[in-house]
Amino acid sequence: MSSAHPDWIVPDWPSHRAVRALITTRAGGTSAAPFDATGGGGMNLGFGSGDDSHAVTANRARLRGALPAEPGWLKQVHGARVVDAADVSTAASPLAADAAVVTRPGVVAVAMMADCMPVLLADVGGRGVAVAHAGWRGLAAGVIQSAVHALRERLGDPSAGLIAYLGPAIGPDHFEVGPEVLEATRTSLADAEAAFVVNGPEKYLADLFSLGRMALAQEGVDAVFGGGVCTYCDASRFYSHRRDRVTGRHAALIWLEP
């Protein structure tokens, strides 16, 4: 990954040597204000964000230089559908899904976010990987559990040992939600209430990182790394929809070495 910008995040987790992963920040791109970065152009990767499409195209081209192949960009819908990243590039139009799995070397799975939590998964034997886009709607729909199931199914091993990495997301001090969010997440996580703190009448502060760990534990994934890096807190480094409304998108990418 010699072309990766030094500010981008390479997950610190004990993955197999065949596994590669990368999470972009707002640094290293060409986008102008309000999508720019401190001291330079912004690495906004999201079309439809309001940014100039030529800048987004240029940013994706820069990202491609750090990857073995073009990522399998998804049409994210805050659901729980999982696709095989190898099928994305051959589809006639972007596939509507919020998670992707990879079992073929050189295929890049990707999820985009601007406060939602990216969840990376890797088989301990290096046979497969996955990424999930997990905001509260995705967590309520069970996107993390679905990604775990899909990866194990592709591996043909229902008890495959997996590790997980939780990327930057809006932190629990800033993610204020209503009671409907608590009720929705209870549908897939019985202990969801433990991740919510009362913050006034009909208001809660929600902890996406805790909810993610609950979902992973539900599937027997206890080796969980990362978590705790807040996108809302650091405007110089991260895009945040809750903070800025008009904002860019980061990407979380994972693949197996060719």
Give the gist of this structure.
The protein has 258 residues and is of the alpha+beta class.
Which keywords apply here?
6-stranded mixed sheet; 3-stranded antiparallel sheet; about 260 residues; 12 strands; globular; CNF1/YfiH-like putative cysteine hydrolases; alpha+beta; about 20% strand; about 20% helix
Describe this structure in words.
With 258 residues, the protein is of the alpha+beta class. The protein has a domain at 19-168 and 230-256: CNF1/YfiH-like putative cysteine hydrolases (4-Layer Sandwich). 22% of the residues lie in helices and 21% in strands. The chain is built from seven helices and twelve strands. It has helices at 53-64, 85-88, 136-141, 143-155, 179-186, 208-218, 241-244, and strands spanning 19-23, 82-84, 99-102, 108-113, 117-123, 129-134, 162-166, 176-177, 196-198, 204-206, 224-226, 250-256. Strands 2-3-6-5-7-11 form a six-stranded mixed β-sheet. A three-stranded antiparallel β-sheet has the order 1-12-4, with no helix packed on it. A three-stranded antiparallel β-sheet has the order 8-10-9. A hairpin with a 5-residue loop joins β9 and β10 (204-206). The radius of gyration is 17 Å and the shape is globular. The two termini are 13 Å apart.
